[in-house]
Amino acid sequence: MICILKSAKLFLSHGKSALPIGAWILAAAWSHSLHGQDLGNKAPKQEAAIALTGAVLHTVSTGVIQTGWIRFSEGRITDLGEGDLPDFQESVKIVPATGKHVYPGLISAYTQLGVKEINTISESTDVSEVGDMNPEVQVMVALNPDSVHFPVARANGILSAVVFPSGGLMPGHAGLIRLDGWTTEDMTIVKDLGLVIQWPSPGRSRNKERLQGMGKSIENLENLFQDARAYFSVRESDSKVPVDLRYEGLRSVLESGKDRGEVLPLFIKAQSYDQIVSAVDFSQRNQVRIIIVGGRDSVVCADLLKKYRIPVVLLSTLRLPKRADRPYDGPFQLPGELEAAGIDWCLASDESNSAQRNLPYHAAMAAAFGLPQQSAVKSITLSAARILGVGDQLGSLEPGKSATFFIADGSILEITTHVTDAYIDGRRINLVSKQTRLRDKYREKYRQLGILKTDPDTGRN
Fold it and tell me: pTM higher than 0.85, yes or no?
């Protein structure tokens, strides 16, 4: 609504006040909705049992089945195996996938998909609220289910994603989504994964003022947590005490219980050694769970992270090193170093929403510099699912898990590989996007010019 009013004000400032302001507000809302709207239909619910046959199954949890089958019904994987499809008493739709590769859906563990459309248009961005600490904010409230970035990410096998808020010291709670659905509710897997904190940094200068500022920010966090715990205690003894939404926003990360389930983690965005060590120290003093997001210097803190069993969401391999004592290929080697150190980690791309499709290539670069290929695939599937607390639902091909996977014509770590089909909860997903429509348009142009010929066997140019 804020962006709509901004647009209405812009119209009026240009002398467009002949129409009622309500009309201009509607016009503004309509014009800005066009900046980021996927007009494709969403997939219908799975109606019949389906079995893929003859495929290479990358189960992730139990290795690779070179020639196998997988059956799924009502959105869940029922069974899978090696060799020919067994005879089932109930009817099943058979989909041949001979020579194709089946992978569990990739999980992009750090994005702003659905809440940021065009960086240069503020009205299409809804990632932050006013103020430095907003523990009551839920980023899922702002999700746009028709974002044009979803089809692009799906086209390369990314079928689930974590959406992070940003801005300030404590921007709010992250959520986990499936990348297809008519509404925000349809897309939501977990509304509240945990609370995000942008950990303060002393900066490169590490001067007195920066260190004092870092200390003051951490003190403010601790005071907020202490006040929240005091509020919970008072509310428990006297239900007439007014509800404070700000403190209630901290309940899921500070309290656990029969009615509330397991305490949720703090997603601490920290890159440098100073930030990581400070965040771990904070977590132990305040008895909170944390997950490090970023982790550029995490291998330097390996013993500390292992001691307290703190996982890392590593952001990007396709970047330059920041530390002067790191080799040029340090970011490429870092995943392999974390794996060797025994740290619980997963990989995210840290790229713009339009480039989230590059997630498997971050894993591929790590594989090219020492990380085993199966570990590379695991870092963007099962490892991510386990760190996010949904390892029982996503991340591998196992009976009982969600039938969320894709079919490709080769290794997903290869740039030349194409994703040919995808399923989310057993629903066959439309892989058409603006990019594929443009591709087909200009293929047709050059076919008409006689430059491209149609393959009579495949019907493709």
Answer: yes
